[in-house]
Amino acid sequence: MKKDLVEVINRQRSGTLAEYTAEPNVITEDIEDKVFDIVDGKGTTVTIKRNAGEGTATYFNGDEQHVYKLRFIRYEDYLNQFEKWTKGLGRADYIVYDCSGSNAHFIIHELSDGKVGSKLSKARTQLFATLHLLFDAPRIKAFIESFSNKTCVLTAGSAPVCSPNGMADGFNQIYNMLPDPIPINAKLITNRGFKAFETRNIKL
Fold first, then answer.
1. Engineered SS bond to 92: which of 4, 70, 110, 178, CB 3.0-4.6 Å?
2. What gap in Å lies between CA 74 and CA 27, rounded to an integer?
């Protein structure tokens, strides 16, 4: 992202702008907890991780036999630093991928406040714009396509929440309590090999 996406941004820039030459900052955080929440960390450098039930979205990370090492990239913060070079370009909050070596999961995650009905159209645009930019960088596209499960997730304030009490106890049994994710109909996303869902509970 420090080189390949900069090249894409420069190719797509307005003709009135000079090339962007600074090295962008890529803020990442690795999380290996079995169950955890995340929040929107935009504009801060503190951890996005929260205890289960204390954040905006809950990750159920693997099972008792295997827990993934998940790398969260603050994609919105990444694009924001380009300022006028990426003005008007849709952007999701996070890029998340399994960096434990199994290439099991690649996720683009958008967090939104408020009811999903008022956010869905914009969220589709943000998720697709993120995919479009990433896929315009051949090495990043190849990296994404190496993952077996590729998902775009929208978490909105009105999404169903499961009880945080005892989430880490009887880890496999908690899956039976999770509400089903709601599919998002977005061919511009699914045509690129991704599934798209609206949910607060991300089960890996």
1. 110
2. 6
Please name the residue that has the structure tokens 């997730």: 153
Question: Contact, 111 vs 152, CB < 8 A?
Answer: no
The continuous run of DSSP H or E covering 109 comes out as strand 105-112
Task: Record the tokens describing residue 12, joined without a space.
Answer: 């797509």
Question: How far, in Å, are 41, 116, 201 from residue 110 at the CA level?
Answer: 12, 12, 13
Q: Cα Rg for the chain, rounded, in angstroms?
A: 17
| Tens-digit pLDDT string for the chain (204 aa) | 999 999 999 999 988 899 999 999 999 999 999 999 999 988 887 999 999 999 999 999 998 888 999 999 999 999 999 999 999 999 999 999 999 999 999 999 999 866 555 566 788 889 999 999 999 999 999 999 999 999 999 998 644 445 455 555 454 455 455 567 888 888 889 999 999 999 999 999
Q: CA angle, corner 185, sides to 160 and 120, nearest 5?
A: 55
Q: Which residues neighbour 101 within 8 Å (Cβ) at sequence distance 6 or greater? A: none
CB 61 within 8 A of CB 34: yes
Contact 48, 38 (CB under 8 A): yes
- Angle, CA of 93, 173 and 168, to the nearest 5°: 60
Distance CA 25, CA 161 (A): 34
CA angle (183 as vertex; 172, 100 as ends), nearest 5: 45
